[in-house]
Every structure is written in structure tokens, then in C-alpha cells.
Amino acid sequence: PVLIEAMTYRLAAHSTSDDPTGYRSKDEEQKWRDKDPIQRFEKWMSQQNWINAEEIKQFVEQTRQEVLQELKRVEKVPVCKIDEIIEDVYDTPPWHLKAQLKELKQHIALYPDAYPKTSGRINQ
């Protein structure tokens, strides 16, 4: 058996409406940018002459294209029923999630125009 312990740090904002400068400094962000494991690994591999900047650039672009292709594919997958947002996690969903799901369905039923893709998935 192998145990890998990893510390992570979210450099990006929580969402597009989030402003991280309200709860962390630029110095803190830079400290964590300097520890970025991907950049450190790229640098180490370059120092070993196992990879160069052009190969990294090609790899990043190829990976980007693969991700975009997969996104286009999964966007065509039919949307699941709204109940499945808790049923696929729990064999028997806990009471508080059932209550939250019920409230969500009621909210969507009140404002169906605000949830065009979701409103048709409600099983009430």
C-alpha cells in the first residue's frame, strides 16, 4: 500500500462573483504559486532534459483540445432527473437532503422560466 498526502491551495476564485482579495493577500497567493506542483515538475523534467518548452506547449494544447472535445460530447448527454442529484450518492438519502431537494423543486416550480433546462426534470 501507498499513502500520498497532498496539500492543495485553490488559486482561483470560488466563482466569477468571488473576489479573493477580500480574504487573502497577493503575497499569500504568490507563495502558493511558487509551490505549484505542475510548474515544479515541468521545471524538474526540463532540468533532466526529458522535456522542452515546445513539447510542454504541444502537450498543453493537445490536452486542451481533448478536454474541449469531451465537453462537447457530454453536453449532448441527456440531463438526469433532478432526484438523481442525491440518489446517485446515497442508497437512502438522509432526511436533510430530501428536505433540501423538496425545497429546490418547489423553488424551480415557482420560477420555471429561470430554470429552463431543470424545470422539465422535476418529478413531483
Describe this structure in words.
This protein has 124 residues and is mostly helical. It contains 5 helices and no strands. It has helices spanning 26-33, 37-47, 53-74, 84-87, 95-110. The radius of gyration is 22 Å and the shape is elongated. The model has no long low-confidence stretch (mean pLDDT 89).
How much of the residues is beta strand, in percent?
under 5%
Q: Which range best describes the helical content: under 10%, 10-25%, 25-40%, 40-55%, 55-70% or over 70%?
A: 40-55%
Give the count of helical stretches: 5
N-to-C SSE series? HHHHH
Tell the overall outline: elongated
- Low-confidence runs (pLDDT<50, min 5 residues)? none
Task: Find the count of extended strands (DSSP E, 2+ residues).
Answer: 0
Structural category is mainly alpha
- Oligomerization category of the chains in this entry: single chain
What number is the mean pLDDT? 89
Distance between the amino and carboxyl termini? 47 Å
Biggest beta sheet summary:
none
Give me the Rg, rounded: 22 Å
Topology:
Blueprint lengths: L25 H8 L3 H11 L5 H22 L9 H4 L7 H16 L14
Give structural attributes.
single chain, 124 residues, mainly alpha
Summarize the structure.
This protein is mostly helical and 124 residues long. It has helices at residues 26-33, 37-47, 53-74, 84-87, 95-110.
